[in-house]
Automatic annotation (TrEMBL), chain A:
The keyword DNA repair does not apply. InterPro entries: EF-hand-dom_pair, EF_Hand_1_Ca_BS, EF_hand_dom. It is a peripheral membrane protein. This is SORCN protein. Keywords: Calcium, Cytoplasm, Membrane, Metal-binding, Repeat. Its main location: cytoplasm. GO terms for molecular function: calcium ion binding. Coiled coil: none annotated.
TrEMBL record, chain B:
It is found in: Cytoplasmic vesicle, COPII-coated vesicle membrane; Endoplasmic reticulum. GO terms for molecular function: calcium ion binding; calcium-dependent protein binding. This is Peflin. Keywords: Calcium, Cytoplasm, Cytoplasmic vesicle, Endoplasmic reticulum, Membrane, Metal-binding, Repeat. It comes from Nyctibius grandis. It is a peripheral membrane protein. GO terms for biological process: COPII vesicle coating. Pfam families: EF-hand_7. Residues 1-70 are annotated as: Disordered. GO terms for cellular component: endoplasmic reticulum; ER to Golgi transport vesicle membrane. Its main location: membrane. Residues 68-103, 135-170 form the EF-hand domain.
Amino acid sequence: MAFPGQPVPGGGFYQGGYGGAPGGPTFPGQAQDPLYGYFAAVAGQDGQIDADELQRCLTQSGIAGAYKPFNLETCRLMISMLDRDMSGTLGFNEFKELWAVVNGWKQHFVSFDNDRSGTVDRQELEKALMNMGFRLSPQAVTAITRRYSTRGKITFDDYIACCVKLRALTECFRRRDTSQQGFVNFQYDDFIQCVMSV
Amino acid sequence: PVRCPVPASHRALPPPQGFPGAGQAPGAPYGQPPPGGPYGGPIPAQLPGSRPGSVGPTPPGGRNAPPGVDPEAFSWFQAVDADRSGYISVKELKQALVNSNWSTFNDETCLLMINMFDKTRSGRIDVYGFSALLRFIQQWKNLFQQYDRDQSGSISFSELQQAFSQMGYNLSPQFSQLLLARYAQRSSHPSIQLDRFIQICMQLQSVTDAFREKDTGLVGNVRLSYEDFLTMVVTRML
């Protein structure tokens, strides 16, 4: 079963596993990677970045483009999405993965933001999410659009926050759906952990 | 089988939504109020302090409180309703609430609380909702202080473990670890402030209810489709 959040062919949300070990020693070619420059500028000795540093890093890299930079809470969410060792920080490989994912989402947003206002409306959000493959029930769509819209508009930042949450939940579910049937048997403990870690 | 949290009659567990709370004076983070105090200026930096034996000065106003509304709650309502719209928004609420480290309450917690007391689903609350919200916060603040055994102003890993246990949850240490990694400031002794504590407990209660609803046989296990899973979580957590 194909899971939502997967981009059009060519993308790589789930392929290639989860990348290398978080942070850790530099690998050949890392220094040449343009992203590494942004990362190294904010990461400390431990080669990890926390939410504040991620915010700075993303702002400096200009990934938000014409849109306002991410708020701290969104950065925190992004870290938790990829933070497999539950350290509350990202290493360079995780950062690279995040970058690719966010870029993909940004392209999507831009394609819906026709008037370049930096916001999309509820219908456009719903369309964008469906487009990304998230099969959402009507109640889920209502809850999401209510949560992420301000006066009927969703900003780029909130859109990213929404995508992060949906992707993290999807990943949680997918990891447990070993037979790829689209069903999971959840124990209470595991369910709580899955859901509250997002 | 799962040990479900103890019923709402238990003293330690906050009553379910709707909170018929005791009408106590709203609380502030414990410890001394900041220099200059919260009582100057049109908008208080925090709700009045509840130093032992005192109620704390109330901002001016509070006259002509609507029927059934405590005059003190009304005067706070007027103070927090910065744009005088007659309603309190997430933004206004956020500016009125602070943690023990003087950080304002986070957006998520304010949103959860507004949604809980917002009957019209408009994203803001009227004076009645606000009045109930104040009581709600006071109850959580009391619990928080109870679990903050060393009175540090925040809740550590072991204090969180014990809080869950006393609330009737049977959750793994790994879970507490996860919450701290997610919500605590990065430090040698990570701990959780009042706003995050409220958020965690509210969400925990909500998803536990959702789980129990599906687990009709009470076996501690539910089988969910991807769509059901998303719907359950999204409607309860946001």
